[in-house]
């Protein structure tokens, strides 16, 4: 056993060194450029690293190879999801004043065409004498997703970790899922997305949902690429008022970056609920009611319209 | 005496060359098709952005046209199968008209659904990655089945007619003889062949009935399996089927009149045929009316919040004009016309049939679009153009092109093949004379 371990470690270290020799690190040269290969000289400065089997090893700094990003996960992995997780979102309506930083961050992160929004912030008023409030919606990532049920080609799918994603390389653009979704969450690429060349040419990844493709459906993906890295979705970190909480139901924790709550406590104490519970879609997005609000409800759209009317009259 | 009658029937029913009217008719149809193809090329190059469909109205007249085609194709099973199995003999001259309407309509139903796809280049994914749980896959399966059964029901009764046409080479001209020989030269009119043919037609007539019900029920399920107000209805299958039989029967009335005039078939498509077909249309319109009452008045009695916006939009709101036009032209007016004996004369019956067909097309539009524009959550955070739907010229051109294409297939079919079954007509006459 012992010898085996050593040889495996040796293999890793040699592999690392070999890799480093192939593509060295130099301040003057692009390390990914082949020309940089011959330039490596040990700097004498040693860096401590943790090897795969938990031992501390030392490597000369010059041999370290910068890794661009983790390689994108394969389509099969992206379809399975992250084992042992069940992602959940909590949206606190008492904190929302329709700043729409979530929407901007989301549109930017996913390179959406102007006018397309995966996150919508609705001015809601259920009846004449009930209180108006802002209701941001993402994809609900339902546990009984109507969209997945109707997709004829398995282009939209439900993962083990609860996330519903779209494979834009497979979608045939029939738009049945859009008709099936009661939350109007899905957005269609009616025209070719206006993307910079380097983004448009990237291979599509179900987890980043980038690049969007003409004639296919897109929607909120809970930023599956960010959650794989252990980071928060863009809308959560962008919101200045901490409206969005994101977390894992198995760990029973949700956080908006600044505050962290036990998910079950938060839902119990603040009487959390889900949208259109009667449809039986079992969403993964919970809402906290708009009580004890941080901001009064002001609909700027309405006010502008009123002003226009005043000017007219 | 008998031989003379037989030869006269053959001479009357052999396909005829187009006159100048026929040529103009075909030219106009081809022109409309070409405009449609041009519009589709535009759509292929720039994407569905050339349509007026947007995220809320994500289905438009392509889908309503699809429903219309599937509906009208059901008449094949009604006339050829239901009436044949119930031993009704007056419908014999109409069987081929009904069957070619069915075949051409179902062909264009499949074409228009591909036109609606955002990525028609990935059509093969339906076979590579098809999932049985999706109603779209059910539709693909039953429509393909229906197409082939209809094609066979068109082909088998044609076999004896090929024989007759080949024998009458001189009258028919040599143009299509090779085709007749290729399609039917194995037919020797032996008693054994006749027996096989009769049995096959019987088996097909029985199988096509459940398949016909399946195609339109599944088409209704494309809507009814969603949650949306106006679609979320257990009534939808029966509602669609009854409407489909109505529009198909209306189309047969129209086709009967046109063929009778164009090919001088007064002796074969008789006043009696119009009278009986007219009665059938009245009955079907009443059945459809019954399902409409169920579909609209029951939810209107309750006026649930989500239904209310949709229903008021139809009854008194922005769609009320189209709604009442469609209801009256597809049901009220045809019933009023055809319920009178005088109304069942060829010309008024033709008018009633036209009203049914036109009204039914708009009815399909009303089934698809208003529902999509009444989502559960209000329409918000979208450009202004997303809130309304009126088809773009490309959509109109493609829809018109597909309708013209369907009529063109029927026209060309009638040019090449006898539109009234010759052999069956001869047999019917002989039987009649013996009696």
How far is it from the N-terminal to the C-terminal residue of chain A, by CA? 89 Å
Between the first and last Cα atoms of chain B, what is the distance in angstroms? 16 Å
Share of residues in helices of chain A: 25-40%
Corresponding CATH superfamily of chain B: Formate dehydrogenase/DMSO reductase domain
What is the CATH topology of chain B?
Answer: Formate dehydrogenase/DMSO reductase fold
Query: What percent of residues of chain B adopt helix (DSSP H or I)?
Result: over 70%
CATH class of chain B: Mainly Alpha
- Looking across the biggest beta sheet of chain A, what order are the strands in? 12-11-10-3-13
Order of helices and strands of chain A: HEEHEHEEHEEHEHEHHEEEHEH
Radius of gyration of chain B: 23 Å
Counting DSSP H or I runs of 4 or more residues, the number of helices of chain B is: 18
Assess the beta-strand content of chain B as a share of residues: under 5%
Poorly predicted ranges of chain B: none
Stretches with pLDDT under 50, minimum 5 residues of chain A: 1-29
Q: What proportion of the residues of chain A form beta strands (DSSP E)?
A: 15-25%
Q: Over all CA atoms, what is the radius of gyration of chain A?
A: 24 Å
Which class best fits the helix and strand makeup of chain A?
alpha+beta
CATH architecture of the largest domain in chain A: 2-Layer Sandwich
The average pLDDT value of chain A, as a whole number, equals 85
What is the overall pLDDT average of chain B? Answer: 93
Structural class of chain B: mainly alpha
Task: Give me the secondary-structure topology.
The complex is a heterodimer of chains A (313) and B (435).
Chain A (H helix, E strand, L loop, with lengths): L1 H21 L23 E5 L5 E5 L14 H6 L6 E6 L8 H9 L10 E5 L8 E5 L8 H5 L5 E3 L5 E3 L9 H5 L6 E2 L8 H4 L16 E2 L5 H5 L5 H5 L5 E5 L4 E3 L4 E3 H7 L15 E4 L11 H13 L1
Parallel strand pairs in A: 3-13
Antiparallel strand pairs in A: 1-2, 3-10, 4-5, 6-7, 8-9, 10-11, 11-12
Chain B lengths: L1 H12 L6 H27 L14 H13 L1 H11 L9 H22 L8 H4 L6 H21 L3 H9 L1 H4 L4 H8 L6 H34 L11 H27 L8 H32 L2 H11 L4 H19 L7 H27 L20 H24 L5 H13 L1
Helix pairs in contact in B: 1-18, 2-17, 3-5, 3-12, 3-16, 4-5, 4-11, 4-12, 5-7, 5-17, 7-11, 8-10, 11-12, 12-13, 12-16, 13-15, 14-15, 15-16
